[in-house]
């Protein structure tokens, strides 16, 4: 994103955020018109309303594998995290998002391809195994490309305000956001440490992939 420093206002101060979302006009606006995202700065989104946004991806917990008591523990620990992060006296907000996304089978396919190449080189006589692996590779490649196999992604949206339209304010917001992301990740992992939950901040490429999936993951 090309972030330009705007001219100060009449009082000599940098311009503050004054964006107002447009009214829906019969679907005639472009995606850029309707989107609150102004652009990317590093791994973070800059919104037209003056916020810097980062995204944390959280691993899921399969409740079906837990007994009743363990499930209660999950909800109690998660409730404790919410109270600590967003409880009384905390002037903050988080957004939780669970989009449906295509299953990423790249790592699995790469493993099959390595086994296929190793068999061809070391055991060329094992034609049945080689052809079987080739059929697996072809099948799962088609599954991935068709994007018919989907899963739920667990996302935690974290934001901090950008004071005004200046590079100084933007860089300061980056520092604050990184500190906040680290704190939220620690709090969440500590609250659910008994269930091997992990959280990671997403990179710019991963964030853009999410935005594309939200519009149309088959496009």
Automatic annotation (TrEMBL):
<keyword id="KW-0175">Coiled coil</keyword>
<dbReference type="InterPro" id="IPR058596">
    <property type="entry name" value="TraC-like_dom"/>
</dbReference>
<feature type="coiled-coil region">
    <location>
        <begin position="167"/>
        <end position="194"/>
    </location>
</feature>
<feature type="domain" description="TraC-like">
    <location>
        <begin position="49"/>
        <end position="166"/>
    </location>
</feature>
<protein>
    <recommendedName>
        <fullName>TraC-like domain-containing protein</fullName>
    </recommendedName>
</protein>
<dbReference type="Pfam" id="PF26593">
    <property type="entry name" value="TraC-like"/>
</dbReference>
């Amino acid at each position: 994103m090309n972030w330009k420093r705007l001219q100060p206002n009449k009082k000599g101060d940098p311009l503050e955020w004054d964006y107002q979302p447009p009214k829906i006009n019969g679907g005639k606006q472009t995606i850029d018109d309707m989107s609150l995202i102004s652009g990317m700065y590093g791994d973070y989104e800059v919104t037209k309303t003056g916020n810097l946004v980062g995204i944390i991806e959280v691993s899921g917990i399969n409740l079906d594998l837990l007994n009743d008591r363990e499930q209660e523990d999950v909800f109690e620990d998660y409730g404790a995290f919410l109270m600590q992060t967003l409880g009384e006296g905390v002037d903050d907000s988080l957004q939780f998002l669970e989009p449906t996304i295509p299953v990423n089978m790249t790592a699995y396919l790469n493993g099959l391809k390595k086994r296929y190449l190793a068999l061809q080189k070391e055991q060329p006589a094992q034609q049945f195994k080689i052809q079987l692996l080739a059929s697996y590779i072809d099948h799962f490649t088609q599954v991935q490309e068709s994007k018919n196999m989907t899963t739920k992604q667990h996302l935690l949206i974290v934001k901090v305000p950008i004071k005004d339209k200046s590079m100084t304010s933007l860089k300061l917001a980056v520092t604050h956001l990184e500190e906040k992301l680290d704190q939220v990740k620690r709090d969440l992992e500590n609250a659910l440490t008994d269930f091997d939950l992990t959280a990671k901040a997403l990179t710019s490429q991963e964030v853009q992939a999410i935005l594309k999936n939200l519009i149309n993951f088959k496009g």
